[in-house]
């Protein structure tokens, strides 16, 4: 049967990518359908119940700046918040929250259910409706046909998902959920390049059976940071403690003794796992000289005794997992509530995508999330928002949008994927961004909210809050710039204990704030305290002033490269006829089919000389 309503956008999959995609499309005014296996698992965290961290919180703040849900759900579900790298430079500072997985999921579901233009339907999608390389809709497992102008696929780890515990394996999307086998098969019949990746999760532990005496406690920051630009500290639920324990030599012996029954070490698993989130057996094998590895013990929520032992992801057989767990301090009598496991799944070569995340082969079909070779909720959500927005733009006959590498980590993520592809699960790091100082988490709203508003992603309330903050920043800069301190004055005396040398002449407070020995608090102290300035505003003023020189330098570099960013390369460009290009470079260009000259220059192995040749050929073509 064909469903009576024609949608603008269909999103398949209600994970982190799918929920942001559906919300983005609906916010932009498109009639949107979210089709997912199970409404109860909307926004489910398959692994660690934590959001943010280095590189990842930058993505969360960008999603938030564009009106997305992840940061708000984190503020509503977060049970421990910390700022990582707090003493380092602002470019690498990152917010991380441990979340109550039930509260987080409930927050996402509430946001989805209250979103105008969005319908949700529970059913497995078994196939896409495609005609003449144009997507027209999706078919569910009971033969229901849903039609739409564009479709966003966000099937996560479910396509051909295979779960491994020791040498036992079975099909599954993640523990407790069915895989998407029919859809995986249909997609393999299409021209996409498909490969396998794997990821894993640790066993969970019953807190009632853990001896916490002597374990190191880890509390969140006080005051707790807030994830969303429009979030408030008083939205946070009760905050809890985490603990730290360690593996030991006995744990490592147990692991080594089980490697002959490990699916990874016996070749049963073929997919490559996340390098930066390795299993404990991988860590013990690769770092054989280390006698101990840290394990963070993180509560799964406020109303459960389950604990997540972060650091011992494993797919070893159950008996080895149990011995391993019980060899760890505090876990001597631990009861495991769920075994750890690895999962292998299909992913698609991301070089077959445009920067809008539309596939190059099927018009109107967008891919987002884990299926593009990434790992992590934040990476998935960021792609989801972008794909959802572009699916909506396409349905509205408008041009696609993708932020540049100097505008957003979302831009870095997408450009890395579509330019270089990936052979292992890709996760975000601040080191992946060449313009780190421009892409701070604190200024994500300044970089993106205006664009989000223009696209229709940002609602009136967020826009008003953003405009107010922007004005406050400007007012505060002016207040500092027009407040002067004379040498040998009472104000100068107040600053004297902090200054390296006494003031030689008069300075305004903005100039003084540039000095490394002074912080915003020191100079604000000299001002009329009837004006109250929020932390967000003072932080922004301080960073902009202190790093102005570096920021300017990065902006100059961006400007220099802008010409190449704006030089398009035709999709049908015949690289084989360019004289002087090596066959290797030609092949790389053919494999990637870059959209711009700048993207071509970022393909590993494409030299500056090759880029010059490309430019000359382009000019000749006219
Ligand atoms: P998912 O969150 O997987 O969501 C996919 C959604 O699509 C689900 O709701 C599913 O029901 C639905 N769906 C799929 N197929 C269909 C269909 N045919 N019809 C209808 N609905 C469908 N990330 C890390 O950063 N670190 C880790 O250590 C880590 N470990 C992990 C361990 C395991 C065991 C798993 C399963 C995942 C792990 N991840 C980890 C990855 C993290 O869970 C994903 O990166 C993230 O959830 C991806 O989001 P997504 O939206 O792309 O997909």
TrEMBL record:
A Pfam family of this chain: GIDA
Record's keyword terms, sorted: Cytoplasm, FAD, Flavoprotein, NAD, tRNA processing
Keyword Methyltransferase belongs to the record: no
InterPro entries associated with the record: FAD/NAD-bd_sf (IPR036188), GIDA_C_N (IPR049312), MnmG (IPR004416), MnmG-rel (IPR002218), MnmG-rel_CS (IPR020595), MnmG_C (IPR026904), MnmG_C_subdom (IPR047001), MnmG_C_subdom_sf (IPR044920)
Domain tRNA uridine 5-carboxymethylaminomethyl modification enzyme C-terminal subdomain intervals: 545-616
Gene Ontology CC terms: cytosol
UniProt main location, coarse: cytoplasm
HAMAP family membership: MnmG_GidA (MF_00129)
Subunit structure: Homodimer. Heterotetramer of two MnmE and two MnmG subunits.
Family the entry assigns: Belongs to the MnmG family.
Protein name per Swiss-Prot or TrEMBL: tRNA uridine 5-carboxymethylaminomethyl modification enzyme MnmG
Classification lineage: Bacteria, Pseudomonadati, Pseudomonadota, Gammaproteobacteria, Cellvibrionales
This protein's encoding gene: mnmG
């Amino acid at each position: 049967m064909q469903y009576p309503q024609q949608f603008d956008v269909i999103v398949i999959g209600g994970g982190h990518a799918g929920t942001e995609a559906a919300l983005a499309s609906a916010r932009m005014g498109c009639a949107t359908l979210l089709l997912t296996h199970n409404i109860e698992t909307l926004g489910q965290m398959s692994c660690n119940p934590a959001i943010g961290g280095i590189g990842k919180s930058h993505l969360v703040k960008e999603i938030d700046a564009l009106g997305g849900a992840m940061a708000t759900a984190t503020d509503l579900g977060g049970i421990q918040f910390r700022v990582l790298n707090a003493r380092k430079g602002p470019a690498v500072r990152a917010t991380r929250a441990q979340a109550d997985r039930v509260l987080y999921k409930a927050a996402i579901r509430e946001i989805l259910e209250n979103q105008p233009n969005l319908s949700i339907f529970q059913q497995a999608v078994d196939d896409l409706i495609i005609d003449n390389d144009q997507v027209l809709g999706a078919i569910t497992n009971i033969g229901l046909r849903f039609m739409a102008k564009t479709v966003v696929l966000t099937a996560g780890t479910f396509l051909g998902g295979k779960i491994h515990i020791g040498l036992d394996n079975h099909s599954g999307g993640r523990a407790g959920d069915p895989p998407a086998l029919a859809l995986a098969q249909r997609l393999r019949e299409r021209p996409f390049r498909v490969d396998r990746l794997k990821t894993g999760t640790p066993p969970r532990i019953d807190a009632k059976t853990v001896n916490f005496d002597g374990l190191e406690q880890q509390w969140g920051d006080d005051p707790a940071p807030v994830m969303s630009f429009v979030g408030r500290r008083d939205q946070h639920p009760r905050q809890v403690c985490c603990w730290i324990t360690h593996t030991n030599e006995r744990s490592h012996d147990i692991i080594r003794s089980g490697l002959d029954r490990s699916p990874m070490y016996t070749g049963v698993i073929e997919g490559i796992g996340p390098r930066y989130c390795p299993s404990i057996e991988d860590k013990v094998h690769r770092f054989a000289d280390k006698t101990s590895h840290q394990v963070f013990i993180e509560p799964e929520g406020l109303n459960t005794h389950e604990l997540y032992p972060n650091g011992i992801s494993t797919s070893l057989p159950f008996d080895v997992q149990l011995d391993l767990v019980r060899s760890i301090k505090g876990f001597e009598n631990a009861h495991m509530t769920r075994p750890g496991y690895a999962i292998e799944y299909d992913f698609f070569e991301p070089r077959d995508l445009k920067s809008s995340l539309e596939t190059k082969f099927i018009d109107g079909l967008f891919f987002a999330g884990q299926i593009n070779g990434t790992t992590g909720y934040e990476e998935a959500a960021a792609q989801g928002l972008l794909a959802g927005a572009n699916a909506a733009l396409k349905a509205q006959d408008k041009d696609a949008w993708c932020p540049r590498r100097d505008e957003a980590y979302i831009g870095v993520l997408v450009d890395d994927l579509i330019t270089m592809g990936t052979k292992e699960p890709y996760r975000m790091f601040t080191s992946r961004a060449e313009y780190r100082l421009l892409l701070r988490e604190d200024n994500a709203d300044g970089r993106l909210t205006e664009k989000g508003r223009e696209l229709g992603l940002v609602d009136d309330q967020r826009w008003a809050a953003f405009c107010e903050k922007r004005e406050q920043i400007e007012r505060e800069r002016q207040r500092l710039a027009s407040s002067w301190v004379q040498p040998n004055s009472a104000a100068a005396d107040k600053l004297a204990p902090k200054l390296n040398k006494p003031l030689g002449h008069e300075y305004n407070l903005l100039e003084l704030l540039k000095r490394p020995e002074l912080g915003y608090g020191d100079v604000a102290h000299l001002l009329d305290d009837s004006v109250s300035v929020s932390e967000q505003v003072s932080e922004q003023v301080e960073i902009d002033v202190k790093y102005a020189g570096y920021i300017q330098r990065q902006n100059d570099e961006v400007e220099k490269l802008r010409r190449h960013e704006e030089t398009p390369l035709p999709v049908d460009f015949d690289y084989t006829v360019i004289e002087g290009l090596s066959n290797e470079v030609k092949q790389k260009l053919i494999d990637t089919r870059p959209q711009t000259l700048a993207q071509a220059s970022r393909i590993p192995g494409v030299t500056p000389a090759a880029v010059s040749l490309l430019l000359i050929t382009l000019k000749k073509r006219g």
